[in-house]
Amino acid sequence: MLGCRGSRISHHFRECDLHFHLPTTFRFGYSGLQPQSFQLSFPCPLKPCWGGLTTIVGNHNRVQSRSCCSATPPKPRGEIPLLFNSLSQQEDEREIISDGVSSVAGGIVALGKFDALHIGHRELAIQASRAGPPFLLSFVGMAKVLGWEPRPPIVATCDRKRVLSSWVSYCCNMVPEEFHVEFSSVRHLSPQQFVEKLSKELRVRGVVAGENYRFGYKAAGDALELIKLCEEYGMEAYIIKSVMDKNSANVISSSNPKERGQVSSTRVREALAVGDMAYVSELLGRQHRLILKATEEERFAVEQHKVSAPKSCLLNLAPKEGLYEKCSLLLGQENVVQCRVVIDKKFVHVETDYDGGLSDIFGAPNSQFLPIEFGDSRT
After folding, report:
1. Greater confidence, 81 or 218?
2. Where in this chain does the record put each FAD synthetase domain (predicted)?
3. Helices marked H in the chain — which ranges?
4. Which of 51, 62, 216, 373 qualifies as a cystine partner to 328, CB 3.0-4.6 A?
């Protein structure tokens, strides 16, 4: 057995329990937020984070030695970005580069819809990182192609890099990277054609997916077919148990018939809709961060101890209208001010006792972003 422990704060690694049997199994999982054991079947053993690991990059082999449990961990692939730097960056989408070599070549891609970046998504990234460089592969343009009504994201686009960077201590000291594929380019692919694209075009070494993952045209393929096809194309496939939500019965009866109590983006949206921020924090594994962006047409209104912003400035999904105590106004990497937030039909109001001059911060012409983190309160 190989063990490793950790948490976000200590930058050590979580408890893991690896067992290899015939067939190969992996024990690791959650029931809500409490660790428990379950069996996970693979076509081949899952490599732990330490020891030599060959990463295929283009047509070359490069041996990387990583350790997630050593006393002196290697330098992370990415650092947690500064608050306002990360907000001002455009989304770092990974694409196929001009020389024909995919930027995910040799990596392990987690497959799914990563809107919320919740603890279930984090679990996929954790498993990917144990086998190689971790990537989150998702599709863009689905709403437009399928005619869905647009809706605000749970995590603001400009804030996703920060969230993924916060997973570094879970993911073998690596920051998972995102790779987006246009949905229109894969919509009509059969399950076999999709796996072939992963293998021959993107040149990934392996995939990680949840037990309920469906893929291919009209979602014809399931997890078992994914394992079979990956074996045919010489790739590793890791299927993991869903992270279950132990508190769902107390708060939400999900309207999605495909859900059987697992943590999901739908549950996060429903928890935000009822204003239960303690529940939202459990599902996300962090506090929900709301970000508003001022424009030339819509500016923040600043008083001595209050900042107000129209809802048209929202970059991501806000909780229901109401009063929220124990929130934090983020004025910079080292400057976090306690506040309370009032959300009404048209505005988000942030009230605080801060005497440092809110008008100097949020009234300046170059002040674009208003980041707020919600404490574990309930409206």
Report:
1. 218
2. 106-255
3. 83-88, 119-131, 142-146, 160-165, 183-186, 191-196, 223-232, 248-251, 265-274, 277-284, 358-362
4. 373
